[in-house]
Predict the structure of tRNA-dihydrouridine synthase.
Amino acid sequence: MKIGNIELENNIFLAPMAGVTDLAYRVICKQIGAGLVFSEMVSSNGIFFKDENTKELTKVDEREKPIALQIFGSDPKIMASIVKSYLNTREDIAIIDINMGCPAPKIVKNGDGSALLKNPDLVRNILREVVNVSNKPVTLKIRMGWDKDSINGLDIAKIAEEEGISALTIHGRTRDMFYSGEADWNFIKQAKEAIGIPVIGNGDIFEPEDGVRMFEYTGCDAIAIGRGARGNPWIFRRILNMINGKEDIPPTKEEIVSMAIEHLNLICSIKGERIGVREMRKHIAWYIKGIRNSNEVKNKINTIDTKEDMEKVLIKYIEELNKLG
């Protein structure tokens, strides 16, 4: 699959998730089969005003290329400015993705994320300004609309196509749904039929079968997996295997815990031990969810402050799982 001039290995993508799709996890997902990985969303204002914490979010590793860097904001001039002066110069970034789907209150209260869906004229202005200055493909992520009384995602999709967006990701929920209820795959299907640019389906892909069904039902060009990929980087490979008629082999319990250890070492090498250990607590909980005695292990992990001790707990857990068979 291609997005603009960027050739991708496959059309199973890691969706952007704040606090989840950091550099370490993107590398892991890419190595296990993701055709494209998206960064956590990055503030265009943060880049514009040279905030160091924001700059950290834009770091890229050779192993995760090609990568799409997702930005958010609502000032067309600022967004175009940071693309022209900074993102265009970054050869390690392949695609620029614009977030107009985030439902978080702290984002929408500033008029960013999914709040932009309430203002199609501003959406058009942002897309036009950014596309006009970008030397990379620009993609867009949206939801169906703000709420059930203002479902205008198809109108936004048409604006995106008219303004030169290279691909559109659609999460099949409104902003007020957050992540509740079921994603409306029929809406994604309608969008695919309404526009000519690639459509990336997003929402409620938790098992490999879900990914296959989304392709079949919506006719979308690619899928982006968010919550279903937390603690589950194997989902990319498993969907690819199912699509290609290969045997679906889920990871063993030992492989899952071993991956958590690999993730721990990688994140600590990138962010340092103090931050890495703290951030791994949630990742480990996602990895081991549903495995025998996982609550006991999770409770231990949440009290640990060193990589060595965290690794010891996980190694001991593997030994216990092997004994239990």
Q: What stands out?
A: The mean pLDDT is 97. The chain has two domains: 2-243, 253-324. Residues 253-271 form the longest helix (19 residues). Residues 2-243 form a domain with the TIM Barrel fold (CATH 3.20.20.70).
